[in-house]
Amino acid sequence: MIEVDVALARAGFALAVDFTAGNGITALFGESGAGKSTVLHLVAGLVRPDRGRIAVNGTVFTDTEARIFVAPHRRRIGYVFQDALLFPHLNVRQNLLYGRWFTKAEATSISLDQVTDLLGIRPLLDRRPTTLSGGERQRVAIGRALLASPSILLMDEPLAALDIDRKREIIPYIQRLRDELKLPILYVSHAIEEVARLADRVILMSAGRVKSDGAPQQVLSPKAGPGDDRFARVSILTAGKPDYDEKYQLTQVTHPAGRITLPGRLAPGPDPVRIVIRATDVTIALSKPRELSIRTALKGTVSTLSEPMGAVVMVEIELAGGETLAAAVTRKAVDELGLGPGDQVYCLVKSVSIDDRLMAAP
Amino acid sequence: MTGLSDEDWTAILLSLRVASVATLASLPFGVALAYVLARCRFPGRTLLDGLIHLPLVMPPVVTGYLLLLSFGRKGPIGAFLDQCCGLVFSFRWTGAALAAAVMGMPLMVRAIRLTIESLDRRLEQAAGTLGARPLFVFATVTLPLAAPGILAGSILSFAKALGEFGATITFVSNIPGETQTIPSAIYTFTQVPGGDANALRLTAVSIAISLIALIASEVLARRLNRQVASFS
Fold first, then answer.
1. Is B130 in Cβ contact with A98 (below 8 Å)?
2. Which of A300, B45, B66, B185 could form a disulfide with A317 if both were Cys (CB 3.0 to 4.6 A apart)?
3. Domain span at residue B55?
């Protein structure tokens, strides 16, 4: 459990946030310069607030009124930086065990074996950081933070410096971290899909303030998307009963608005599953299409149309079952189809585009 | 067999001793000063930087004379050190080492400071978040990563010490067996008739020592750099 209530003013930037977070991943989400990383720096003690209080599991780290400021090295905080920051003069094992020198034996909560298994880095132990790929480095950095037996884990855009394949490689490990460790994790990101996949809770930040706070489905819903990132909007749907088709190597999941088809087999996990769909991947049809390659057609009713943003209009569709799906379509298409609130439509999503945006729900 | 006289050998061995002691003894000060200049902001920082660099721009004779005034037997620091710990600099080889250390200090501090300034400070922050006290961070992260710069600074200081002449001869004179280093010996040989051959021999030795030091440092630096190579 972490409690944060701080204010900080710098030239051209003011931050004032107040939130508490429990175990699991709490994502701090928002555009660059929103103050997300500053919050992590404040929690880690790398920056002092002008005013405020920060406590983890009841231990006060910072309290300006009581004049308390615990030095960073006494906070027992696991900090995972964007670019891993492994010590280049030490090998992987030495990097992993660096924090062990300062942890009392009785306070250790996880062993080297557990960490290397959890993160799949056992074969890397004797390698030098320079010989690792970006994804491997980041996994070692996470392991290094965990082995210091932290009371909270701070992750500052841990995937931002990685290409899409490396992200795919590392996301399952972060999911395991979330599900297997009883640890509050503050996860900073400006990538909506990452947040939609990983977060138990999302705190949306803008210009140094908390704009909204809640479950990813609520905060990341079309209405609440960050203003400047209109086309990156996603919808999160909850679907159940995965069914794998051996012959075509497809998985079908059931949603009240229709079946959703995904390529490949789902990793075993809890049911229901969370499906993340980008607004730009959704096509709107007035009737159920035939003679089309698309396998997923979700039935719903147009609820609102946004103000035109140049050539594009954001259409929100209330799907059967109550969840909302956003579709980015051209203004011309809206006019030619005569789309308006209350119209019955089918939302078409290419199966292959859902593929890597799928995740197991918490 | 080598054609070197006992006198030559005395000067060579003394030179090596003076240069080694000067380098090793000034290393902790050099690292500390470089760290302070690279990392701390305080009033008088520019002045400190200037003072360290003075021996580089002042005539060496001036540096030697100032050393004589302050570290001589009757000088304030010299008298104190003589009384408290029996450490005498004037007209001793220790004085030659002190002169060499002072003359080499700007070069040493410069090289180490540049390396520390180029280090990614976030590596130190990372060590801090893992629980390491600042002194421990310095010892386990900053120092090892600055090793190439420390090596380079030491080599420069060592080379400067081998060649130091003006400050040494002013401070501790030119006493064979005590303060007569290779440069002083060469100078002496050139002042006497028929000393050319000796001067040439010592010159060759001087070149050889410098070359060996340079090659050794190059090899070591390559190895160190491989070890601390950062990510691109």
1. yes
2. A300
3. 6-228
